[in-house]
Design brief:
This protein is mainly α. It has one domain. The protein is built from seven helices and five strands. A hairpin with a 2-residue loop joins strand 2 and strand 3. The longest helix has 23 residues. The two termini are about 20 Å apart.
């Protein structure tokens, strides 16, 4: 497993499509991406996106996806810009008109189910209502106030919060897969 920027871009594109518009408020998109990953963890025991999640002042965030939104990576090189434009006026937009769910080939049917479930529950909320909702420990007990900075939310904490049994075994398995992936990548480079 490793972070897939194109898949993350398609996940955000799916939210823009669900909204019925061409763009979506960035803060709202970031909150919904976290909630979709959390939904996947609850349903299937693993997130859609393989990345670190952090507690930030406005709630939980998928950190690598957030860095991509902020343009900290080459968005053309990684495939992000095929689906999303650079952020502008606190919004992220589809790269072209006519992008549909059928174009989002990196997302599985299970991923789309998680998108739909989260959109049905939270799509009508504003970004500020989502911030408030994710700050409530009854809703997102894994988020902790980082006092102006950011702190890592361990996957194990999310697994426990959503009621996944054997969270420790899952984390060990995920780490083993990452180690294999890294060894494979090193072998390909040499």
């Amino acid at each position: 497993m490793s972070y897939e920027p194109k898949k993350a871009a398609q996940l955000i594109a799916s939210l823009i499509i669900k909204s019925g518009g061409q763009s979506l408020n960035i803060l709202k998109a970031v909150k919904l991406v976290y909630l979709i990953d959390r939904e996947s963890i609850q349903r299937f025991g693993f997130p859609i996106l393989d990345e670190t999640r952090v507690s930030m002042p406005k709630g939980p965030v998928n950190s690598t996806t957030y860095s991509h939104i902020n343009g900290e990576y080459d968005l053309d090189e990684c495939g992000w810009s095929e689906f999303l434009e650079d952020r502008e006026n606190h919004k992220i937009a589809l790269a072209a008109e006519g992008i549909s769910i059928d174009d989002l080939d990196e997302l599985s049917d299970a991923d789309i189910q998680c998108v739909e479930a989260v959109w049905d529950k939270f799509g009508q909320l504003t970004q500020w209502e989502l911030v408030e909702w994710t700050h409530d420990p009854k809703n997102i007990p894994e988020w902790e106030d980082p006092n102006g900075g950011s702190t890592v939310i361990p996957l194990q904490r999310i697994l426990h919060a959503v009621g996944v049994e054997d969270a420790e075994d899952f984390v060990d398995t995920a780490k083993a897969h990452r180690a294999i992936d890294k060894s494979f990548e090193r072998a390909r480079v040499h």
